[in-house]
Amino acid sequence: MKNLRVGLLGVGTVGGGSFEVLWRNQHEITRRAGCEIRITRVADMDLAKAKALVGDRAEVCDDGFSIVNDPDIDVVLELVGGYGVAKSLVLAAIEQGKHVVTANKALLAVHGDEIFAAARKKGVILAYEAAVAGGIPIIKALREGLTANRIEWIAGIINGTTNFILSEMREKGLPFAEVLKQAQALGYAEADPSFDIEGIDAGHKISLLASIAFGIPVQFNRAHIEGITNLQAEDIRYAEQLGYRIKLLGITRRRPEGVELRVHPTLIPAKRLIASVEGAMNAVWVKADAVGHTMYYGKGAGAEPTASAVIADLVDVARAFAVPAGLRVPSLAFQADAVLDTAVLAREHIESAYYVRLRVEDQPGVLADITRILADGGISLDAVLQREPDAGEHQTDVILLTHRCIESAVDQAIAMIEALPTVLSSAVRLRLEDLD
Amino acid sequence: MKNLRVGLLGVGTVGGGSFEVLWRNQHEITRRAGCEIRITRVADMDLAKAKALVGDRAEVCDDGFSIVNDPDIDVVLELVGGYGVAKSLVLAAIEQGKHVVTANKALLAVHGDEIFAAARKKGVILAYEAAVAGGIPIIKALREGLTANRIEWIAGIINGTTNFILSEMREKGLPFAEVLKQAQALGYAEADPSFDIEGIDAGHKISLLASIAFGIPVQFNRAHIEGITNLQAEDIRYAEQLGYRIKLLGITRRRPEGVELRVHPTLIPAKRLIASVEGAMNAVWVKADAVGHTMYYGKGAGAEPTASAVIADLVDVARAFAVPAGLRVPSLAFQADAVLDTAVLAREHIESAYYVRLRVEDQPGVLADITRILADGGISLDAVLQREPDAGEHQTDVILLTHRCIESAVDQAIAMIEALPTVLSSAVRLRLEDLD
């Protein structure tokens, strides 16, 4: 097998980690791959930083395009990030007939159709194991490990920052804003954390997973995304009393009507294995018709876990290099002519169970009014929790757990419930998934 | 890509499941694979059973060798099981230049060296994803997903029968023999359960995992194997009081001195994710230098979960069919010339922490004598639990948890402790792994 000459673009956390792991484990990797995989050229705008990383172990420059255009480079490793120059570099590399390995979920989620089509046209590999759930080989598991299955749904803890925040909120009973500050101090959240806490990052990842699970185009733009910024500590507490934990899940589900694609805080039964995934760890739960439930757990970020995925892709490229394009695993798991244009369902058509918290007058008949509205809307209840009001208080919290129904029915029912004179504030509504 | 004509040998649980899943999901599989994978011939000694399964969907016969020798068959799917005719069929298929997919862990663990060498010589694929942990794509994760890593250790719940029994023993406080009977009634344990409960089946699987994790020959014959037949309900209870659960783990670990390869009941911290894997489910925990900890969870047995793994192998074969042998993923993950003859360490050289339960006279100085012997042997203690004797009793249980040490030191210390006049019966000794 030929040795693989890799050009690394970007020496940030993941670029640095990939360079070091590939260097340190060169021998072990060659024992498996049967060829040498070497990063021979490195580019970064910050030339000093690149030199500090690489020393004399590779050639360093500040112009990624000079690597992309270098005929001695077989594979371009894009670890620049973002949508800007990264996109130009990836498309230029493809145009040059080079294989590309990237960890750039944002780029693929937003411009995936264009990029995957370009790679297909040129017959090059576009590999992105590191783009979802860091070191967990979830792309490989879905694309190759579960090929026998009709995949039904995926629910993933695929953003470590938010899982860390939710774990801390639950364990310590602290409000979101305070835990966020701690997470920033510890390096678990960025100075501008909005990509993570607003659910955008998880949205990018679940869009890619939906695509390879069901054979549909990457449709991040149609995903319904809610972050954790409005989540209140008391809902975490009530959920726990009812036997649930709240996780920010990326969820995608195939239904006869279309595909659900959504990110939001979700109540899940505390007894499910994925409910015990705490801190910055990631886990992806997959339900498929033949294998049933499987789960994949590990670190979703960090220099070396992400490097693990990046380098696994490089080894795959080394193996597939001399293989005709038609025999390779398709980038998006399904053959290009078998991709279906299945619609992503709008939020109103989501099917879920719901947690609804209401602030109500503590007086007879209130619960009867509320449950009547739900029943009229065809929404059946799984559980009701009514807090005993504190002495002297005349208000209390009512928590309702519904069975599965279509979200528009819940929209209507909640609007009617909020209009009741005995209901004192807006309802808090969270989705609940049994993951069964 | 060419269509793949598969000959199925054996229509037992897994054979039947594989036939049905491939038939049911033909369309979805073809969407991914880009070619049709069809079981065109089926053989089973029980011709009526084979006909009942297949109907007119494939040609049926009672002679596996006629399929193995059929030039129209591309891949032989060996689901006969056992060491006897299965071995002859697999070797004959290889000799005919056919690729082989099998779920037969026993065969590969015992005769793997011979079979893998034969396949290598003929340049054919020998795939066995279904041989370990059923539907969990753990072979693919280790062979391909973690190629960047130096794998340090693996600890797996890789036998569903024993995990079901241990879960029931813990939850219901029942003794082994009683739970075994229940498991047999429920179909979770076979009429002759010895392969499972003696740890042999887990031994087969961990031997294969060790081989692909470290690049060493399959060495089931050197594994140290203890089952769960002697495990007592009170040790499960004591473990729980100390914050641990007892699982039958297959463990393999690379140390400078050699490789540990062992199966035994093991105390693990209750807070570890794998400790919550209950019932007949499987999970494999992998520690590797770059990615850190990852875990893979799912069903380890059953018709359709195992079929999921079998068919994933068939799709891989379809893709690798026209690929030169040197470019394929090696059967045992490492290139044949890079396999190391690393020694499997004898039981005495295992390194572990230990749980030791002693029945002692309830009198002053007993604990001092015991801890002195341990200290003299260089064994330090992590925790001591001494039960209050019941009223009127003059004996009690002492439970010791040690830090990590070499097993021979524990052998010696326990021999000396058992010789103390105040120690009233043989020590119960279990291994404890922190999985950190």
Account of the protein in words:
The structure is a homodimer of 436-residue chains. The two termini of chain A are 45 Å apart. Chain A is 37% helix and 25% strand. Chain A has three domains: 4-135 and 303-338, Rossmann fold; 140-299, Dihydrodipicolinate Reductase, domain 2, CATH 3.30.360; 351-432, Alpha-Beta Plaits (2-Layer Sandwich), CATH 3.30.70. Chain A contains 15 helices and 17 strands. The first copy, chain A, is an alpha/beta fold and 436 residues long. In chain A, helix 1 packs across helix 13. Chains A and B meet through helix 1, helix 2, helix 7, strand 12 and helix 13 of A and helix 1, helix 2, helix 7, strand 12 and helix 13 of B.
Task: Describe this structure in a few short sentences.
The structure is a homodimer of 436-residue chains. Chain A has 436 residues and is an alpha/beta fold.
- The tally of structural domains of chain A comes to 3
Count of separate DSSP helical elements of chain A: 15
**What fraction of the residues of chain A are assigned to beta strands by DSSP?**
15-25%
Distance N terminus to C terminus of chain A? Answer: 45 Å
CATH architecture of the largest domain in chain A: 3-Layer(aba) Sandwich
Oligomer: homodimer
Corresponding CATH superfamily of the largest domain in chain A? NAD(P)-binding Rossmann-like Domain
Total strands of chain A: the figure is 17
How would you classify the helix and strand content of chain A by structural class? alpha/beta
Provide the gyration radius of chain A in Å: 24 Å
**What number is the mean pLDDT of chain A?**
96
Tell me about the biggest sheet of chain A? Answer: 11 strands, mixed
Share of helical residues of chain A: 25-40%
Principal-axis shape of chain A: elongated
Low-confidence stretches of chain A: none
Quickly name the level 1 CATH class of the largest domain in chain A: Alpha Beta
Biggest interface between chains: A-B, 68 and 68 residues
CATH topology of the largest domain in chain A: Rossmann fold
